[in-house]
Write a structure and sequence with these properties.
By secondary structure, the chain is an alpha/beta fold. The chain contains 15 helices and 15 strands. Strand 5, helix 8 and strand 6 form a beta-alpha-beta unit. Helix 5 crosses helix 12 and helix 7 packs parallel to helix 8. About 2% of the residues have low confidence.
Length: 456
């Protein structure tokens, strides 16, 4: 609890107000799960080096607000206020600019043409039952050719089609992990990856990704005790960093390694990075078209040895019976036509990235946000640990954001937020103006009540 609370002493207001605000944010952010019990007032006071009076006052505030339930001779349990219900967050309006999703808009004409071609191909599949745990031969061949164009020879029987990269990772986690196994992860990393490993009761083993990149010594040390590793070397989500070729060539992990290549085709300043599996042939690669084409096209894949894919196929029966056929055929068209790397789209993203950087320099000059060479996001660092509080109040100023702790474990990254640049430049500028106003409101002692936005 003390680690998750972080630097709760900093900020305006009384000590018990700051503590209750931070505890409430942990509840809203899902880091304190509903029904869980909190430490006693005395134990938490000792852990935080504060008075029991401060902790007691903070707990009573949360009880009054409906975030804690109490009963005699029992510890307080986490709950939500009775009036909390799905739907628009308080104060948020339909015009709110959503920076919690790092996803491009659909390329309408390209998608329409791909689905039209897919419908023409569909009749030849009608004589079959329509269930295919491997994926259609057309798409597996197209994915294999996508790897070959990047310099990595790949056979179709090394490809398994999934319902997006998240589904691919979930299948691998259920197949390769057991409860209490340790999983090496980048820190920060993709929030849904953390959730995937938590669901199978594995224990994340974080290795920091700093502004200078990956620490190979730490990665190799962690790889010796981990059961599995999950890395995002290609325009890392959320930092945007790209692992240098020298690191790819030297890194050797002792555990099975899953490489997330979802962002590979979004190189903005140069060529796409070389496949990680060129240097680590046993690496298990996962990818999708959700970032390079459109998030609504839920098609992904796993590239691995057939023996690994056979194990995944056995696990898959418990979750689904295959991937939709028309979407597979359309994705095969897109891959074969080279539509995952479109110069016009990359130029637009480059322009939006630069516009976001200019807006930050003008309206939030105190934050540090290195400009990545690709991907969809900046990783912004504030001078103070205000990320969760900023996310809770930002919708009042017309913008939703994903707070930094969503991308880590143990309450880390309270000084960070992820800022996607997938929106038009004018919208990005408006969003940063709103964030600046929200930050100013925090310095005046204002607090927010908004639940965390979804993240993608």
């Amino acid at each position: 609890m003390a680690r998750m609370l972080g630097a709760w002493q900093e900020g305006p207001g009384s000590a018990h107000q700051r503590l209750s605000d931070r505890l409430r944010l942990l509840v809203l952010d899902g880091r304190l799960s509903l029904g869980s019990t909190l430490p006693s007032e005395r134990d938490l006071a000792v852990a935080l080096s504060t008075s029991r009076t401060t902790v007691g006052a903070a707990y009573r505030t949360l009880v009054e607000q409906g975030y804690l339930a109490t009963r005699a001779r029992a510890r307080a349990t986490v709950r939500l206020p009775d009036d909390t219900s799905p739907g628009p967050r308080p104060g948020a309006s339909p015009g709110t600019i959503d920076l919690s999703f790092a996803a491009p808009p659909a390329p309408v004409e390209i998608l329409h043409a791909a689905f039209a071609a897919a419908l023409e191909q569909l009749p030849r599949h009608f004589e079959r039952h329509g269930y295919d745990r491997n994926g259609t031969s057309e798409l597996r061949e197209a994915v294999a050719h996508w790897y070959e164009r990047r310099g990595l020879p790949t056979a179709p029987d090394h490809i398994l089609i999934t319902n997006g990269a998240q589904h691919a990772l979930a299948l691998l986690a259920r197949t390769l992990l057991s409860p209490r196994d340790q999983v090496l992860i980048d820190h920060p990393t993709y929030p849904h990856a953390i959730a995937t490993f938590t669901e199978v009761r594995a224990r994340p083993l974080p290795v920091a990704v700093s502004s200078s990149g990956w620490d190979t010594v730490q990665l190799q040390a962690a790889g010796r005790i981990a059961r599995l590793a999950y890395l995002i070397p290609d325009f890392h989500n959320p930092t945007g960093l790209c692992m240098p070729a020298s690191v790819r060539q030297s890194l050797r992990l002792a555990c099975p390694t899953v490489i997330d290549e979802t962002m590979t085709d979004l190189a903005l300043d140069g060529e796409s990075p070389e496949p990680f599996a060129l240097h680590m042939p046993t690496a298990i690669s996962i990818g999708s078209v959700s970032k390079s084409i459109w998030g609504g096209l839920r098609i992904g894949w796993i590239r691995a040895a057939p023996s690994v894919l056979e194990r995944v196929q056995q696990t898959r029966h418990a979750t689904d019976l295959g991937t939709p056929l028309v979407e597979q055929l359309a994705t095969a068209v897109l891959l074969n036509d080279g539509r995952t790397r479109r110069p016009g789209t990359l130029q637009q993203l480059r322009s939006q990235r630069d516009a976001l950087s200019r807006a930050l320099a003008e309206h939030l000059p105190g934050i540090h946000a290195p400009q990545p060479a690709g991907g969809l996001t900046l990783w912004a660092t504030f001078p103070q640990p205000i990320s969760s509080r900023l996310a809770a109040i930002a919708p009042d100023y017309g913008v939703t954001i994903a707070a930094g702790p969503r991308f880590g474990i143990g309450g880390a990254f309270e000084r960070n937020i992820r800022l996607p640049y997938a929106l038009p430049s004018s919208r990005l500028t408006l969003a940063i103006r709103g964030l600046a106003q929200a930050e100013q409101a925090l310095t005046r002692g204002a607090t927010g009540v908004h639940n965390p936005a979804p993240v993608a």
